[in-house]
Amino acid sequence: MAQTKNIRRVAPTEARAKLVNIRISPQKLGLVAASIRGMPVQKALNELEFSRKRIATDVRKVLYSAISNAENNHNLDIDNLVVAEAYVGKNLVMKRFASRARGRSSRILKPFSEITIVVREAGEAA
After folding, report:
1. pLDDT for res 9
2. Rounded to whole angstroms, how far apart are CA atoms 77 and 48?
3. How many structural domains does the chain have?
4. What pLDDT score was predicted for residue 81?
5. Which of 40, 49, 53, 60 has the fewest CB atoms lying closer than 10 Å?
6. Residue 4 domain-assigned?
7. Distance separating alpha carbons of residues 7 and 54, to the nearest angstrom
8. Which burial class, exposed, middle or buried, applies to 98 when counting CB atoms under 10 A from its CB (0-12, 13-18, 19+)?
9. Within a domain: residue 32?
10. Family per UniProt (predicted)?
């Protein structure tokens, strides 16, 4: 019994990469994702290289992965790629407790998030 072929979730001129379980809040990750959305990939890589946000290095790796997927899996020209979509989603939240005064405790939430980057050839985006 053969496996059925997976359907493509993106258009033929697009490629995508996803990173899950990133230990940062979705709000902070969304700021970095918004800073590269709609940019050409070379400009987006430069933006992430010189960003002062800690998570920018992980987002840069995901963008490199999306570019590599476009080149190797879908035969797209990497010079014409644009970051078509960069969106963030929530993931699990670790719940911890911290000791407080007078025998009390307070909850500490440690959120995780995920990012998906879709790159598209610039001829199709315009």
Report:
1. 83
2. 21
3. 1
4. 96
5. 49
6. no
7. 35
8. exposed
9. yes
10. Belongs to the universal ribosomal protein uL22 family.
% of the chain at pLDDT higher than 90: 86
DSSP type of residue 37: T
The pairing of strands 81-99 and 14-22 is unpaired
Distance in angstroms (rounded) separating the CA atoms of residues 87 and 116? 6
Average pLDDT (97-121) is 97
Find out whether 30 and 90 touch, Cβ atoms under 8 Å: no
Give residue 115's region: left, alpha or beta (phi > 0; psi -120 to 50): beta
Owning domain of residue 94: 14-121
CATH assignment of the domain containing 113: 3.90.470.10
Token pair in block for residue 65: 């992965």
What does the pLDDT read at residue 107? 97
Instruction: For residue 9, tell me if it sits in a domain.
Output: no
What digits encode the pLDDT tens for the residues 20-74? Answer: 999 999 999 999 999 999 999 999 999 999 999 999 999 999 999 999 999 999 9
Q: Which pLDDT value is given to residue 95?
A: 97
Structural domain contains residue 112: yes
